[in-house]
């Protein structure tokens, strides 16, 4: 899941693994998302090329990347199986 601020700008991401690790550490399900999220998620500008997207996916070992507008809001998301 992607986490955005009040202005819809990307501030983090949360995976099922993040949630599992938090629960194993004793966090409650109602804990603030900031305590669980990755505050430095991988993202690319909307103008990124297919090669840039694939390169980041391969180097980071991820299968989805949010694409950001110039103002930092989420303009789209690319999944590996759609490339």
DSSP helical segment count: 2
How far apart the termini lie comes to 20 Å
> Percentage of helical residues?
10-25%
- Binned strand content: 15-25%
What overall form do the CA principal axes indicate? Answer: flat
Number of beta strands:
5
Radius of gyration: 14 Å
Biggest β-sheet description:
3 strands, mixed
User: Mean pLDDT, rounded to whole units?
Assistant: 95
Strand order of the largest sheet: 3-4-5
Category from helices, strands and their pairing: alpha+beta
Low-pLDDT parts are none
Order of helices and strands: EEHEHEE
Task: Write up this protein.
It is a single chain. It is flat and about 40 Å long. The two termini are 20 Å apart. It is an alpha+beta fold. It has a three-stranded mixed sheet with strand order 3-4-5. The chain has helices at 16-24, 50-60; strands spanning 2-4, 10-13, 44-45, 64-68, 74-79. Helix 2 (50-60) links the parallel strand 3 and strand 4 (64-68).
Highlighted features:
single chain, 83 residues, two-stranded antiparallel ribbon, alpha+beta, three-stranded mixed β-sheet, 24% strand, 2 helices, 5 strands
Provide a short characterization of the protein structure.
The chain has 83 residues and is of the alpha+beta class. The chain has helices at 16-24, 50-60, and strands at residues 2-4, 10-13, 44-45, 64-68, 74-79. 24% of the residues lie in helices and 24% in strands.
Summarize the helices and strands and which ones pair or pack.
Elements: E1 2-4, E2 10-13, H1 16-24, E3 44-45, H2 50-60, E4 64-68, E5 74-79
Parallel strand pairs: 3-4
Antiparallel strand pairs: 1-2, 4-5
């Amino acid at each position: 899941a992607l986490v955005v601020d009040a202005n819809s700008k990307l501030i983090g991401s949360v995976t099922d693994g993040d949630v599992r690790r938090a629960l194993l550490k004793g966090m409650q399900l109602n804990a603030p998302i900031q305590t669980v999220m990755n505050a430095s998620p991988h993202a690319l500008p909307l103008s990124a090329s297919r090669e840039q997207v694939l390169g980041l996916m391969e180097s980071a070992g991820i299968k989805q990347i949010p694409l950001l507008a110039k103002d930092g809001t989420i303009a789209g998301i690319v999944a590996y199986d759609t490339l």
